[in-house]
Amino acid sequence: MLPPVECGLRSLRRVVGFRASISPNLIRRQRHFAAMAEDPLRKLQTPRNKSRQPAVLLMCGSFSPITLMHLRLLESARDYLTHNHHRYEVIGGFVSPVGDAYGKDSLETSLHRKSMAHLATKTSPWVTVSTWEMDRPNWTPTKEVIGHVRESVNTRLGKLDIEGVACLLVCGGDLIHSFIDHTLWSDDDVNQIFKDGAVVMPRDGTDMDEITSMARLKPFSENLHILPYDLPNSVSSSLVREMLKSKRSPRYLLDDNVLDYIYCHELYNS
Questions:
Q1: Would the pTM of this model clear 0.70, i.e. be above it?
Q2: DSSP assignments along 38-64, one per residue
Q3: Which pLDDT value is given to residue 30?
């Protein structure tokens, strides 16, 4: 159940520092999400190209809050695999917010992060929210999230005699660079994550040559897909939190519905 949405204009003005109003549709949208039994597989598309392997894309993270750059990265990954790499047919995409047990200081509650993720992906024809990881009581390794999504998708499409759907992780180069640390990622983590592969967005300050030459990733070179660095990607959840804390407007860095939700519930203002 979502938190109450009938927050008054007085509290909203206190957060944003100027006269503001909430669209009446916001309350209706949030009530709709509260009543809706979310099916994360509802947007899966039926594969049409028999010469390509069907695949879904998965993005894991805090999403505190989810930004337009998160969604833009998924779109870029799908475009790249569709037009530059003729191995896959992307039939769906998922964002999987981490559970509260992750324990990060800047982590908003799963209740709010789930609501914002649903609002951000509502209009996407192919991306949905997987809450399996978020709803678990303990922290869940990335490889298990990938395994769950892969199994769920293949079980659903198996009823249509469609098999072998791949699940590719979509992430920033900073995450892949951390694979150099064996204390963070075991060999089994690497094997399971790169079983299907990953689509990676270069990040400022990350040496992509060092990533592609990493010894433990060499066996999976064909499954490591590096996106072209043609889109500034300095927008982050951290930046949005900093702007909100200092009473600056992050509008157009977030979906408007997500920003309205943040103002309504007075999130990230202290």
A1: yes
A2: --TTTTPPPP--TTSEEEEEEEEE--T
A3: 52
